[in-house]
Amino acid sequence: MVPHLKSFLIVLSLCIGTAFSMRVTSMLHHSVVLDPDGNFHLSWDFDKDIIVFEVRVKTLGYVGLGLSPNGGMAGADVIIGGVNDVDGTVYFEDRHAVGMKEPLLDKSQDWQPESGSQNDTHTILRFWRKLDTCDDNDRRITTDTARVIWAYHDNDWGSDVTGSVRYHGSRRGSKSVLLLNPQKVLPKMPNDVVTVDFINDKVKVPAEDTVYWCQAYSMHMYREKHHVIKVEPIIQPGNEQLVHHIVLYACPIGTANETAGQGGPCWANFMPPAWRGCVSTIFAWAVGAGPLYLPEHVGYPWGYEDDPKLILLQTHFDNPGKRNDWVDSSGLRLTLTQQLRQYDAGSVSVGVTVWKTHIIPPHAEHFTTAGHCVPDCITQSMGNVSEINLFASFPHAHLIGTGVRFRHFRGGKELRPITVDDNYDFNYQETRLLEEEVKVLPGDHLVTECTYNTMKKTNVTFGGESTNEEMCLTFAMYYPRTGLVNCHSLVNPESLINFANLTIFPNYTVNLPLSKRGRGVFDVLANDLDWKDKAMTDRAQELANNNTVVAMCFSDKVFPVHTKTVKLPAVTEPYLEPRVCLSGAVTSSVLAGFVYLMTAMVLLFH
Q1: Three-state SS across 157-222?
Q2: Which CATH class is domain 345-575?
Q3: Quick one: which of 593, 606, 603, 605 has its CA closest to 16?
Q4: Is the pLDDT of residue 33 over 80?
Q5: Domains 189-342 and 345-575 share a fold
C-alpha cells in the first residue's frame, strides 16, 4: 500500500474514532430518574454536535426511550433496545411513532448503539446521535425543553404468543428535561459558607384554586459584604403538587422593615403599601427546577450597607381542588460566602406588563405577544457602565404558553436569540445558565416573545397573576449590577380602545356606545366581540404586533424610573438560524459505517 495513503487512513481513522468512540465512553455529567419508582435512570452528555445517552433500567427485557413533541407517542423519535437473553447480543433500533401503536423503523438509523450489558437485575445501554440529524423522522435536540418518553418490558422485544408485539402496558411515562444544560460540573463550595432560609411559617393555604402568598422578612445585615452563590428550593414533603413557584423580591432601598414578619395573600386589602414597591426580582424558582449555582466569577451581593433592608417572599400555591387542609412551610435557601467574587450580580425582568391589556384570543393555534425592554431604558439604567453581561435566564408563561423566546436587537439588526424554548412546559421551569455570556450595550433592545395555543379555549385569556391568566416574562441575571430591575411594556391603551370601537372614561369604563356605557372595557372585550371569527383573531394579532407601546422602566431605588409611550425601533435584519441540511447529507449511520470502514482498511493493509 502507498505509505502516504496508509498514513492518511490511520490519521483519519484515529481522528474520527476519537470524535465518535472515545467521546461516548467518557463520564456522563447529567442524569435524571424518569419514573416515580426509581427503575429508569437516564444519563447523558453532549458537545456542539453530538449527544450521548446511557439508560440503566430495572428489567431484563426491552427498553424504549424517545423524544416527543408533547409527551405522547405521536411524532416521537424513539429507540428500542436490549440484550438478548439467549445469546447475549445487543439489539437496537431507531424508530419513529405515528400514534398509539408500534413505532415504525427509520430508513436512516441515526441513533447508534455503543454498548449494552445486563446483570441480574438491570439492562444498561449506551448510544449516541447527532443533535441535528437532518432526518424528518428524528427530532432536533436544541435548548428547548425536551419531553422525554420512556417504557420497558420484562421480556425482550418481539411478538408474544398471539403474534402481537409485546406491549409495555403501564410501565411507561414522560418527563420534561433540559438536555442541553451547560452546567456539567458543580462548583466547589468555599469553606466559610453560611445559609439563610426564607421559609413560610405553617401557612394555612386558602381554599382557592390560585393563591399568591406574600411573607416579609428583614434582611440580616453583616459587617462585611457577602455574596450569594447558590439558591435552592425547600419544598415541604407532600406539598410538591401544591407549590408551583417561588419568587424572592427586594423592596426599594430605603423601605422600612417594620412590616417584617407579616404575611398574607398578595394584593389583598391587608397588604402594606410598602410591599407594592417590592418588584425587584432576586431569585425565582418553579416546579421542576433544582438548585442554582452562580458562575464562579459572579455573586449576588447580600446584607451590606447598600442592600435592601426588606425582603418579600412570594409563593404561588396551585390548588385546583380548592382543598382547605393544606398547610405549607416551603421556601428558598440561600448559600452565602465572604470570599467575594469578581462581579456583583443583578436581576432584571423583561416582558409584558402583568395586566389585563395582555389579551390572548381563543381558538388560536399560534398567537404571539411580546414585551419590550426599549433602548432608552437600557441606556438610562446603565449610567457609566459600558456593557452588562447576561449569564442566566428564566422564561415564564402560564398554562397556554407553548414557546418563550428572549430576543436581542442592536441598531436594527437582530442578534442570536439569548434563549429559545419552543417547547415550553409550564410544569417544568428552571433558571438556565447560558452556554456563552451575552453582552448588552447601551442602545440595545431586548424582547421576550411568547407563543400561545388557545385551541381548547372558548374565552379570551387576559394577563394576570392567576394560573388561568397569562404572563410573558424572562427573568435574566447579569453583571455588573446596575439599578435596572424591571423592563416591561404593554399595548398602547389608545390602540386597545380603538380595537374595541369604544370611547371610555378615565376609570376604564365605557362611555360610548351608549348601549355599553358604564361597563368595564375588559368585560366588553371578553363578552361582546366575536372571537369565533378568525378575522377578529387576526386583528388582535395586529394589535399585539403594534410598534407603539407603553414602556415601563423600574430601578431598585425609584418606582418607576419612567413610563412613556414609545415607537419601537425598526428591525431591518432579522436573525436567521444557521442550519445546513443538504440533499444526501451524511447521517450518523453512514458516518459510523465510514469509521469502521477506515479502521478495517488500516488493519487490512497494515
Answers
A1: CCECCCCCECCCCCCEEEEEECCCCCCCCCCCCCCCCEEEEEECCCEECCCCCEEEEEEEEECCCC
A2: mainly beta
A3: 593
A4: yes
A5: yes
Q: State pLDDT tens for residues 85-101.
A: 999 999 999 999 998 88
Q: Which uninterrupted H or E stretch holds 126?
A: strand 123-130
Domain 189-342 fold: Jelly Rolls (2.60.120)
Interatomic CA distance for residues 517 and 502, integer angstroms: 10
- Residue 585 pLDDT: 46
Domain ranges of the chain: 3-15+584-605, 21-177, 189-342, 345-575
Q: Which residues are catalytic?
A: 212, 396
Is residue 478 within 8 A of residue 484, CB to CB? The reply is no
Q: Contact at 8 Å (CB) between 396 and 439?
A: no
Highest mean pLDDT among 166-175, 212-221, 229-238, 239-248: 229-238
pLDDT digits (tens, 9 = 90+) for 403-457: 999 999 999 999 999 999 999 998 888 889 999 999 999 999 999 999 999 999 9
pTM of the model: 0.85
CATH value of 21-177 in 2.40.50.140, 2.40.50.100, 2.60.40.420, 2.60.40.1210: 2.60.40.1210
